[in-house]
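Researcher: Here's a chain I'd like modeled. Treat it as a single chain, no partners, no ligands.
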Amino acid sequence: MSVLITFIQKAIGQAVPILFGATGEIAIEKSGNLNLGIPGIMYMGGIAGLMGAFFYEKSTSAPNGVIGLLISFICALLASAIGGAIYSVLTITLRANQNVVGLALTTFGVGFGNFFGGSISKLAGGVGQISVATTAEAYRATIPGLSKIPLIGPVIFSYGFLTYLSILAAIVLAFFLKKTRIGLNLRAVGESPATADAAGIHVSKYKYIATITGAAIAGLGGLFFVMDYMGGTWINNGFGDRGWLAIALVILALWNPTRAIWGSVVFGALYILYIYIPGLSRAIQELFKMLPYVVTILVLIITSRRNKKENQPPASLGEAYFREDR
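Model: Modeled as a single isolated chain. Structure tokens:
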């Protein structure tokens, strides 16, 4: 039983950054933009949050974990939002190709994170010597008392606040898209920007806001990985392919944020499953790591054959819209 509880906890730990990334990308794609820069934006959010906490703790002899948390949280949001703004300006205003810009943003974000991560490591005394333990402890703080409940406590209540925030963000986005006028307008922009424009909806404004907000949400995935999962340390290229898994999860969830919640747990479980199966060779372990992508491909094939409208991506996804061309 203890092994099963540990497996569930680890799967949820893997799921959170993927869920943040997928939720942010769903918000972006609902506007019609396809941002393949999510992996880079997650790096930017992670390193910015770590830098904020590091310089705060270094500047005082008695750092407060809550203050460090707030500083790092704001830094992560700002850095990832800036990444979304860069993407928006290049694709919406300057009409650059979305795929090219997204891939370039990922390359930039990874390089940005690794460069500053290495620089901070040198300031801290070497690789793995970055010390933001006080802030990381605040991120990892669990709900008092509830985490001690047998069985239920370790599985449900033994996580830091970002875990619950990732679920809340997905639920709020689902409600926003389905139940609010602004959300319906955003979906209209993603389906047919020309029609939305004719109806008086400011297409560019909706695209800008959705892309920047979605990037900020995705950046929290990087913040979680660094401050909660890694305990306030930085390892170059430590994120692995979690950013790409977030983009794949958007397809698995069929552009539905609430489906992304359980989908992220499935991805998290599949991502670490090989660790709990003894005797696997290195080659077989790598095959197990492919399982989330295999599941996504199967779901894509099945949903495309059924051809249900609600299971399809926004009709204008990845297509630029220019009002003068209408």
